[in-house]
DNA sequence: AATCGTTGCTTTATCGCTCATTTAAAGATT
DNA sequence: AATCTTTAAATGAGCGATAAAGCAACGATT
C-alpha cells in the first residue's frame, strides 16, 4: 500500500506550509530558489504526484473532455476519436468516451453524466434520431463548449466541424459524368434525411446533374436500407430498369457493395457497364479485388479540427461564446469501380 | 451562468445542514422520510446535480477506468473498447481512452497520467515494443486493478483476457489439412515474437502439422512485414517454390490479402490451387468478392470480459489481489478462400 | 533611528461532498 | 418523575490543492 504522498507530507517533512509547497511546485514567482529545489527534491524522494482530482475540484476544470459518438467500433468514429486524442493528449487533456448506439435516451444520459463529471467540453456526433435540442442547450447554459462533428444540430453558441457533403456528392456525380455516364442512380436513405448529410448528398447529386444538363429523374433515386442487403435490392431494381442506368452514386459504401455484388452476379461488368462510386471511404473499399471509388470523409482531420476548435473556445473563459463552424472539403478516392477511362488506384 | 447548485444551497434553503442533505439524497437509513422528500423536491427545484469530482476526491474512487490501446482506429481495439463500454457504462463507470501508437514511452506517460487522474483500474493491450515491466508494477503497487487484453505481460497480480492463439492457429491449420492441403506455408512476423501471440500462432501451426504427420519444413515459415506489401512478397516467394505449397495460414489478414492479390495476378486460383486462411477476421475479409477465411478474435467479447474481470477485482477492496486469467477460444470463420470442398460464407 | 518596501513564508478559507461523532429531542421503562 | 433508548439532525473534520491576505525579517532610504 504505497499510499501516495501529498503536499502536506512534503510540507511536514520540510517544516514549511503546504501552500509554500504548492507554490514551489508550480514555480510561483514568490518562492525562493532554495525552497523550490528543496521541495522538488523531497517531492521526488517521496514519490509525490499531483492529485488531479483535487486540482479539478479546486479549479473547476477537470482537464477532461467528453466525446459522444454513436458507436466506437465504426471506423469513421474511431478515426475521429483518434484525431481528437492526437490533438488533445499532448495538451494534458483526457478523453472520456461515450456511445449512444443511435439512441436518443442514451444520448441524454451520456450528456448528463459528462456534465456531472465536470468535463471541460463536449464533442459529439448526434444520433440519427435526435429530436430534442434542449439537452444540448443545457450544455451551453453551463458554459461548457459544445462542438458537433459530422452530424450536427444548428444551435446558437455551438460550434461544428462538418464535411461538405453537398460538395462531395457533387464531385462524385460530376466524376461519373466525366467518365461518360449520363443515367446515374442515387442510393440514399430517405428516413435519415433529418441527419442532414443524406439530404445534402442528394442535393449535391441533383445539382451536378443540373449543371450538366442531365434531366433529373425521380425514379433514379432509390430509397433503401443502409446496409449490404439494401444495396442488393437496389442492384436488382437497377438491373430491372427498362433503360438501364450506367452509373451509381451511393451515399454509403455498404449499399454500393451490395449493389456491386448483385450486378456482378448478373454478369454485368463494373465499371464498363455500370460505373459506381460510394461514400465514406470505408477501409474495405480499397482492399477489394476491384477497388471501389468513394468519397473520403477525412475523419482523422475532422477529429483534429474539432479538438482545435475546442481549444480555441477555452483560450479565454471570459470571452463571449465563440461559435466556429468549419466545413471540410471531402476528397474523392477514384478507384477501379468508376474508372472507365483511366484505371487508377 | 446558471451556476450549479450544491448541497449547501439546498441546506440553506431548507434550514438544515449540508450533511443531512447529503444523507437524504443518498437514502441513508437515519433520515426521516419527511426530510428525504423535502430535500429531493428542493434538489429538483434548484436543478441540483451531484458533483462527481468532489465525490471522487472525498471517496478516493473516481468511477473512471483507463483504457490504453495501441490505436483506437484499429477495428480490433475499437471493438474491445466497445465491449468494455457496453459493460461498464451501465454501472456508472466512465472510460478514459489513451493510445500508445505502439510507443513504449507513450505507454509510460499514459499510465502515469491515468494514475494521477485516480482511475479505479486500467485495462490495456501492451505495445509491440514493451520491454520494461516496472511501470506496470507501479500500477499494482498502488492497488489499482490491472487487466491485460489480448497482448499481455506475465505479472503477478495482474489479470488478463487473451485469445487462445495457439488453438486458433491449430484449428486454422487443421482446417486447411481437412481441405486436403498438405504443404502449408505460414506467414508470420518474427520481430513480434515478444508479443507472444505470433509465437503462439506459429506453435499452433506446428502442432497441427505434427498431429497430422506432416513434416515440418522451416522453409515454409515466411517472415515478412505485417502489411499488404509483405503479403505480396510472400506471394512471390510462394509462387517461386519448386514444390508449390497448396495452403497458406497467415497470422494476419493484411498479409494474406497481399498474398492473395499476388497469387491471383499470376493466374492461380484460390482456393483451388492454394487455399488460404488469415487471422483477425478484419471486416474487409467478409466483404471481398471472394471472402477470406479467418480466425475471429472475439474482440467485443474480450472487452466485455475484461470489464467483468475488473468488476470482480473491485468487489472487495480489502481482498488480497485477485488474479484472473481468462483465455477465450477463437472462432473459425470459414469462407470461400479456404473452402475447397464445401463452399460457405 | 525611524520608516518604507521587498521578499518569502504562514494562515486561513474554499472547492463540494461525506463520515464519524456529538447533541437534542422524543419515546419507553421502571 | 427520573433514567435509559432510540432516532434524527447538527457539528466538525478532512479529501488534496490553491488563492488571497497577513505577517515577519531584512535591507534600503531619508
Automatic annotation (TrEMBL), chains A, B:
HTH lacI-type domain ranges (all copies): 5-59
Organism in which the protein naturally occurs: Formosa algae
Record keywords, A-Z: DNA-binding, Transcription, Transcription regulation
InterPro entries: HTH_LacI, Lambda_DNA-bd_dom_sf, Peripla_BP/Lac1_sug-bd_dom, Peripla_BP_I
Name this polypeptide is given: LacI family transcriptional regulator
Ranges annotated as spanning the membrane: none
Keyword Transcription regulation: yes
Molecular-function annotations in GO: DNA-binding transcription factor activity; transcription cis-regulatory region binding
Gene3D superfamilies: 3.40.50.2300, lambda repressor-like DNA-binding domains
Pfam families with a match to the protein in the record: LacI (PF00356), Peripla_BP_1 (PF00532)
Amino acid at each position: 500500500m504505497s499510499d501516495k504522498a501529498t503536499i502536506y507530507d512534503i510540507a511536514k517533512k520540510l517544516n514549511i506550509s503546504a501552500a509554500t509547497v504548492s507554490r514551489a511546485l508550480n514555480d510561483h514567482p514568490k518562492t525562493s530558489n532554495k525552497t523550490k529545489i528543496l521541495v522538488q527534491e523531497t517531492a521526488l524522494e517521496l514519490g509525490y504526484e499531483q492529485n488531479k482530482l483535487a486540482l479539478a475540484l479546486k479549479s473547476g476544470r477537470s482537464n477532461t473532455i467528453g466525446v459522444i459518438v454513436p458507436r466506437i467500433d465504426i471506423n469513421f468514429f474511431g478515426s475521429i476519436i483518434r484525431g481528437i486524442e492526437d490533438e488533445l493528449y499532448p495538451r494534458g487533456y483526457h478523453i472520456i468516451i461515450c456511445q449512444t448506439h443511435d439512441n436518443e435516451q442514451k444520448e441524454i444520459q451520456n450528456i448528463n453524466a459528462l456534465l456531472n463529471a465536470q468535463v471541460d467540453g463536449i464533442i459529439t456526433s448526434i444520433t440519427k434520431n435526435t429530436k430534442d435540442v434542449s439537452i444540448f442547450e443545457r450544455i451551453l447554459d453551463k458554459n461548457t463548449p459544445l462542438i458537433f462533428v459530422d452530424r450536427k444540430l444548428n444551435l446558437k453558441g455551438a460550434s461544428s466541424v462538418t464535411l461538405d457533403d453537398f460538395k462531395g456528392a457533387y464531385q462524385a456525380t460530376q466524376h461519373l459524368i466525366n467518365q461518360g455516364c449520363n443515367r446515374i442512380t442515387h442510393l440514399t436513405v430517405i428516413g435519415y434525411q433529418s441527419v442532414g448529410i443524406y439530404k445534402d448528398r442528394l442535393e449535391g447529386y441533383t445539382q451536378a446533374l443540373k449543371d450538366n444538363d442531365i434531366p433529373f429523374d425521380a425514379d433514379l433515386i432509390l430509397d433503401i436500407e443502409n446496409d449490404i442487403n439494401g444495396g442488393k435490392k437496389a442492384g436488382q431494381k437497377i438491373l430491372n430498369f427498362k433503360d438501364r442506368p450506367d452509373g451509381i452514386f451511393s451515399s454509403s459504401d455498404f449499399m454500393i457493395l451490395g449493389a456491386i455484388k448483385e450486378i456482378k452476379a448478373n454478369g454485368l461488368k463494373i465499371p464498363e457497364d455500370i460505373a459506381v462510386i460510394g461514400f465514406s471511404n470505408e477501409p474495405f473499399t480499397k482492399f477489394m479485388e476491384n477497388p471501389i471509388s468513394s468519397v473520403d470523409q477525412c475523419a482523422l482531420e475532422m477529429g483534429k479540427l474539432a479538438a482545435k476548435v475546442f481549444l480555441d473556445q477555452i483560450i479565454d473563459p471570459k470571452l463571449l461564446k465563440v461559435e466556429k463552424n468549419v466545413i471540410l472539403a471531402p476528397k474523392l478516392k477514384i478507384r477501379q469501380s468508376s474508372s472507365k477511362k483511366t484505371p487508377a488506384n
